Amino acid sequence: MLMKIVEYPSPILKQSCNPVESVNADIRKLISDMFETMYAANGVGLAAPQVGIQKNIVVIDVGRLENEQTKPDPIAIINPTFESQEGKITWEEGCLSLPELIVPMERSAKVIVNALNADGKAVKILGEQLLAVALQHEIDHLEGILLVDRLSRLKRELYRKKQSKRSTLEETIAPPSNPVGKPYLG
User: Fold this and answer.
1) Helix residue ranges, H only, the chain
2) What is the pLDDT of residues 22-49, one digit of tens each?
3) Is 138 an annotated catalytic residue?
4) Which candidate in 21, 66, 86, 138 is catalytic?
5) Is 172 helix (H, G, I), strand (E, B) or coil?
6) Whole-prediction pTM value?
7) Could you tell me if 27 and 20 are in contact, meaning their C-beta atoms sit under 8 angstroms apart?
8) CA gap 167, 163 in Å, rounded
9) Backbone angles phi, psi at 57, to 5 degrees
10) Domain 11-169, CATH among 3.90.45.10, 3.40.220.10, 3.30.70.790, 3.60.140.10
11) What phi and psi values does residue 179 have, to the nearest 5 degrees?
12) Domain range list for the chain
């Protein structure tokens, strides 16, 4: 089922999420709906607060290269924590909850994340390049940290004003445009 993506400046995006106590059929259904929503929005990641759910759940699919073609590689993680982060990489990031914002962001180039999978089993995920960036971006969402929060005060204020003007001009929210043709993180 497609879910509505919550957009900035909704206060739900600024709240820290709650741990998932047990992985059950409801959590697996939520994960399935989050994947469907993320794919429909051309995203590569989505965190539960972005669909109005204050739980530590993230879905990501940055794909994997197989025979010179990119194939789906969906990852669902629950209650993720960083085991390690190293190196630096700068990546152009966008966010499904921050329409029309695409900015270069410095992140760790390699991360190891511990979490539960959709079956409730403990997993360790090694992320490098885009997967590392996506993991950091989505886990930020679980802590109430948005991409716009990582900008300078001036850039943050300019974006806020632009979005305020945009919302007064539009009766309905259309899917965010993607001016550089890159997939959005969640």
Assistant:
1) 25-40, 130-142, 153-169
2) 999 999 999 999 999 999 999 999 999 9
3) yes
4) 138
5) coil
6) 0.88
7) yes
8) 6
9) -135, 135
10) 3.90.45.10
11) -60, -25
12) 11-169
